[in-house]
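Blackboard transcription, Thursday session:
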Amino acid sequence: MRAPGGPEVSVGDVLLSVDDVSLSFGGVKAVSNVSFDIHKGEIRAIIGPNGAGKTSMLNIINGFYHPQHGHITFKGKTRTRMQPHEAAYGGIARTFQNVALFRGMTALDNIMAGRSLKMHSNFFWQLLRHGPAMHEEVEHRHRVEEIIDFLKIQEIRRVPVGRLPYGLQKRVELGRALAMEPDLLLLDEPMAGMNLEEKEDMSRFVLDVNDHYGTTIALIEHDMGVVMDLSDRVVVLDHGIKIADGTPNEIKGNQAVIDAYLGVAH
Amino acid sequence: MHLIYQIFVDPFVQMGSAPDLLVQTLWEGLVAGVLYSLIALGFVLIFKASGVFNFAQGIMVVFAALTLVGFYEHGVPAYLALALTIAVMFGLAFAVERLMLRPLVNQPDIILFMATFGLTYFLIGFGELVFGGDPKVMIASQLGLPKGAVEFKMAGGFVSLQKIDIAAAIIASVMVAALAVFFQKTRVGRALRAVADSHKAALSVGISLEYIWVIVWFAAGLVALATGIMWGARSEVSFALEIIALKALPVLILGGFTSIPGAIIGGVIIGVGEKIGEFYWGPLLGSGIETWLAYVIALVFLLFRPQGLFGERIIERI
Amino acid sequence: MFYREVGQYKTNYSADMSVMPLLQDRVGIGIILFIAVVIIPSFGNAFFIQAIMIPFLVFSLAAIGLNLLTGYTGLLSLGTGAFMGVGAYACYKLTTYFPGVNILIWIVASGFFSAAVGVVFGLPSLRIKGFYLAVATLAAQFFLSWCFIRQPWFYNYNASGAIEVPTRTLFGIPITGATASDTARYYVVLGVVVAMTWLASNLVHGRIGRMWMAVRDMDLAAELIGIRLLRTKLLAFAVSSFYCGVAGALLVFQWYGSAEPAVFDVNLSFFILFMVIIGGLGSLTGSYLGAALIFILPIVLRYIPPHLGIPIRPATVDHIQYMIIGALIVLFLIVEPNGLARLWQIGKQKLRVWPFPY
Amino acid sequence: MANAASGADTFSKLLVRNAHLYGARPAMRHKDLGIWQSWTWRQSLDLVRAYAVGLHRLGVKRGETIAIVGANRPKLYWSVMAAQMLGAIPVPVYADAVADELAYVLAHADVRFAAVEDQEQIDKIQSVMQRLPKLEFMVYDEKRGLRDYDHSHLRSMDDVIEEGRKALAGDPAVAEWLDKEIAAGKGADPSIILYTSGTTGTSKGVVLSNERSIHAATDTATFDKLNEKDVALAYLPLAWVGDHYLNYAQGMVSGFCMACPESADTAMQDLREIGPTFYFAPPRTLELLLTRVMIRMEDAGFVKRKLFHYFIDVARRYGERILNGQSVPISGRLLYWLGNILVYGPLKNVLGFSKVRVAYTAGEAIGPDLFNFYRSIGLNLKQLYGQTEAFLYVTAQPDGEIYSDTVGPACPNVDIRIADNGEVQFKSPGMFTGYFKDDAKTAEAMTPDGYVKTGDAGFFDEKTGHLKIIDRAKDVGRLNDGTLFPPKYIENKLKFYPNIREVVALGDQHDFVAVMLNIDLTAVGSWAERNNVVYASYQELAGHPLVYEMIAKHVAEVNRSLAADKIMAGAQIKRFLILHKELDADDGELTRTQKVRRGFIADRYAPLIKALYDGSKEADISTEVTFEDGRKGVISARVKIRDMQTEPPPMERAA
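(Written on the board underneath:)
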């Protein structure tokens, strides 16, 4: 079942485009006049030094912040003020820089929660936990189990996520996002604070997701190695301004990018 | 139609026709407000420093007042009794930190909130056990608080201000001033504000949390004592006073949990609003609306400013 | 130790997701129900049934109600007492206007009234959080109890200002009012409470439960996975108040028989809140345990001194009781902040892995 | 069930029979996607039929071999069944075999087809493709990661099965044809080729025939009263005779349900969930389990610990006798009953043994303490002796006649004799028809009069009439002074100590007995924790003086027990050392079934052996090791050597 809203976009076409977007918090400019697009089926990296406005960018894309200027076009629909849950229904899923799981719940329930927006059985069946409500539970449990299998987290199914090591929490969070069967998956530093091995695993999963589910991915990452390996195209932000956009190789050579990272004064 | 008139016109006509009554009511409200502010102040102090929503603040007022009177009744001279009571409040602060806060450090807010409930119950029981349940008279005069009232004519009527109320207003403002200085100027004060932001910050200032908590609870205790004396002097000292603690809550919403000026102004707004409402609108709703009016005012207010008058703006990050 | 989980495997998801996957747990519940339905009525004396079991069950229901809101959805409410009041008064008015309709129906129906009121006072929960919300719910508390006191319509203009429960029957047996037998009233309460507990556990184990907990644990993330915050929170308020409302109706109709408005004052709210916290946030079992502890502890404290032959003035007993309860609450919070439910879980886990320590 | 089996002389016919007899009963379960997916006999049959048709369309023909590579998964068992249905011969291969071994077996068995578990196995096989000219086509179970592989010679089992299903549905002729195929299968046809992991040299393909396998399985299933209500957990290598006999063959014969774990690491949990009634575990597994139990109990509270040890002691006194139905004082029964409520019951529950009716152990000698422990808590654990060539069973212990030091009397219809050189020889219903493509070796393994040489030395115990195995016949050597030297015997005595994991005893054509050993990291590790001995690696712990002390004590005890036995007294241990690395199958030091490869070790550790006998106090050694990912590395160390006192043989015993 595909998320509602917007016509189907075929691989290679523009899935989402950001047009001349600006956002500021009480005078402080977080993002100014940024434009770029994301193609269906690609892995798009957003990089830049700390405070470059990367996370704000993601927050704008999934409607958590509302830009003062410019607009977002997703699946051909242009929105300026989109509510987060609308974004979710539209098919945008998201993981967070510092894990935002539901700590009191088990890994299984967390991922199940990710399917809430696909479950519709009414309140009274829910009360009885029977008929449609139960069918729905079973059907979605099956989907969730496939994700659990895909991410190889069977043995922690019933563990409250609060007790899991960081690396696994990140994996569960990815699982929760996948449960939404998104068209666009936003990953905010999926490998932050991971050791090499965990990073390799996570990279593997990101590629598998893109390959296996054909999900379009936009990710923020600091580890340049990872970015270069994973992404098809990279957009570079610095102090809220887009300074470069292109394939990993183009970016590598770009003087502005090098300056930004070496912290040359502006 | 008639109702509309009753609600939206009549009260204002009354106000216009008898300004002396209006002034009188305003004054009453102001004084009540000041006392609310003082209690709210106690809350704010503790909430700022330890994030604890101290439900016991109200009972601390009663407890302080009772202790004071209790000492006096056992033949202790008034000022000595006052000193002793202050000592008791310090002891209380110390005990609370030792026996309650320290073991509960890093627990969720709601747990600490619950703990202050426990404290409330304990203090009620203890207070009644020691001082008995029946109301007492505050030793206002013995403490040199003025009696009587100043009256002056106004628009063909009288406005009378109880001296004690004036004193209350003055003392309240003095206390606020003192606290302000304490926060701005002293090292502990600064540390305290640091704590409000983050506990690590406080430690970096080089003052132990435990120490800060004791200070804060003690300060709250003093505020409670002052409140107790004032309120007691106006009516009487009994556990009925406890209810005013609940009165102070809407003040908090209005002023914001972490803002001292907020507490003061919120208090005044609530106090005045309550009295005016009760006096002019009360009759047509059936009296006693002041029990909830304050809350409704606060609630309506909240819908427009969730963080209160002076509370820091909440920017949600993720 | 009593757990024999070998061979209790699940071959389909509905079995795997059942509320009680372990046979031993189901048996345990069976035993408890048997005791409640058969043993207690036949062996318990009037005092036990009337003064302990009935109120215990009623408070458990109220605690469940509040737990759904505070424990599962993370919305702190201090208005429980008032919502219970709404239930009680609604039931009272309904049965005065329509004496013919079976009282059971009205008891349940009264829940809908408090649910509606709950939703209204829940509206601010979108904008405000934590203690701000708690204080906001106090508005409901004070406003409503004011209504009960000041608006004579609510208590049919009785001189006493209290509501008197009329006698109503079920299958010809009086189940409310002066003539109703303890057992009859007990069975009514038991029936309602058990049924509603079952429904509650269904809810919290399903999609709605997950949505509530998601909102509780991290509302922003919840919103970003497509959960509508206001709807979810209001639903929690509605369901919670519904439970409290029914509890309130039962409180008056099955226990007190008549009630002054004072019954539903803010202290009742705090009382229920204790039960929830001490029992354990986010646990239905906890609600029962909490109700048992908080409600029964005072009774015990009251009856111990005389039995020990210690001569104390009842007033003094009162005071000491207050102190003890206060101290116990603090102590308990220190020992087990997660409540009795946690202790229960730990104990169960120990039995499951016996003889191993973990 | 014996009579039920009669009539069906091939596994395919058995499958058909089961589908009729036990149609609605579970044949196969698999913990997958969080629950126990289950298939009835009827479903299995339908599935296998479809699969068979699918395979046929891919070109699998009667008499051909087809490799089965992977862990215990229903689809792989069905691959076996499907192959057999077509009269093809399945050749299971160990999932953890390194590419090299895999290449050897697949090449030697000339497989044209392979049914494999997942990407990992496919990669392994493709890495040695040039050595497998005959291999044409592979079918796989796990799709994951294979999306962009060249599928010209690759198919997913699901697709193959689906195709077969369509074909069957579409055209009744296909079903008829398949029925004919099944009917065409003859009892004499080979049913499977199992490659022995051979303690020495490369492995041989043991060919087993349908009727013989079924006959043998029927006998033992009857012997243990197995029936369709039983459940077994298939967690041992699918390519090992044990799994194929105990679970596959006996399952087919008696119609019980075979359950496959979710993964190797969850086997313990899955065991607990499924609660098998028929259970097999090699001694080392049982040992590992017991060690874990004891370690976990160490962390228990004082009271619990006391309680546990008290009742375990009660069990030691009465448990076994109660199990054997011997007379026990009423007080004893009472205590045991109490213990059963407080300790044994719960313990069996957490271990997953509650429902076990019959449990077997085999493969190597088992320590009496270990063996008795399990029996005493009420687990009906028995020993059997056998080998691949016999299709496992040669002897087995009947209920009520259990001794830790015997392997029981000959199984039904098995004929055993002891050759003059002490070697055990047998004729059995299930015995193999020969080694695949290796008549020379076959001849070598058989006596002219058709007995199979087991290569094990043993004798019948006068008292019990049960068979006792001391060692491999060829391994029984002599010291220079002529004293008898059965290395296994000595090694086992040492291995019965939880602290000692692996032992290699030396002495043949030497002046005295010396041993090299591995400590058990789990046991010694926790010991180290309790005595706050710090260590970074196995190597460091192994070299620790305190550890040497501890091991020396064990060795001394063993010497004492050896001295007690007249003929063994001369074979006491004079010197020992603790190896700097754990013996590992990936390095070829152990077989896949974890047996020691003596010859290999002899030259690999030559410097150490030399040092043991030239009296030096320590020796340097560096060995090449293979890591899990196949990389190779070298670790070197200086190993200490310890001298031991020997006990004089007590005279009164000699008399």
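Lecturer's comment: Residues 49-162+171-353 of chain C form a domain with the ABC transporter involved in vitamin B12 uptake, BtuC fold (CATH 1.10.3470).
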